[in-house]
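The records we work with from here on pair a chain with its fold. These numbers are not coordinates but entries in a learned vocabulary of local backbone shapes. To see the layout at work, look at the sequence and tokens printed below:
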Amino acid sequence: MNDLLRRALADAGITERDVAARVGVDLKSVQRWAAGRTPYARNRRAVADLLGVDEAALWPQVAERAVAAGPPVPEVMATYAHRWDVPRSAWRLLFERARRQIDVLAFAGLFLAEDAGLLRTLAGKAREGVGVRILLGSPEGARVAERGDDEGVGESLAAKIRNALVGYRPLGEVPGVEIRLHDTVLYASIYRADDDLLINHHVYGVAAASAPVIHVRRVEGGDMASTYLDSFERVWSAAAPVE
């Protein structure tokens, strides 16, 4: 139980529902914070700003850990000028090391769907009990059409997605694999295995394969990975399962 947070809310006349609305999270998250769970750093700062207090006044244990821990652990592990600069071994190791969750968010992700070795890895991980979620753009969606125009490739992006769906089709028969379609503006593609993410940023007029990639790792007290993971969950919740 976080009595410090509860008391600060009462003193400010702010309800848990108010916090959820202002910080941009669901009510259950705020209730878990009040029950004692420590939020991500970004959310801690937002709540502290909302209440007009120092973060350490609400979560003193975080400040104590920061002092004891010394220099911060880096969140960015590697950078690549282009997606095609990422070695195939990096993709293989990313997914092979997963023990809990593999997530893919892209428009097409055709390079994965065409790699039989990586598909076998994803299927094998699912059979081991690792959750596998794949999010692709809807070929008929407005956002895919816009992105195709932005890249100057027109309807070929929708065609790539349809080809990718054919490649991913065998995975759809593996228990633990879920495939959905989204119609969302993507500012980055996300390839996640547990706490490691390869983020392929989208650049106007540039194909994803030629855009930069960063390798981000989720660390205690870090914000960067959680920002991308939160984004994935929002897209996933609004996406439609592939029939």
Notes: DSSP finds twelve helices and eight strands in the chain. The longest strand covers residues 131-137. The chain has a mean pLDDT of 89.
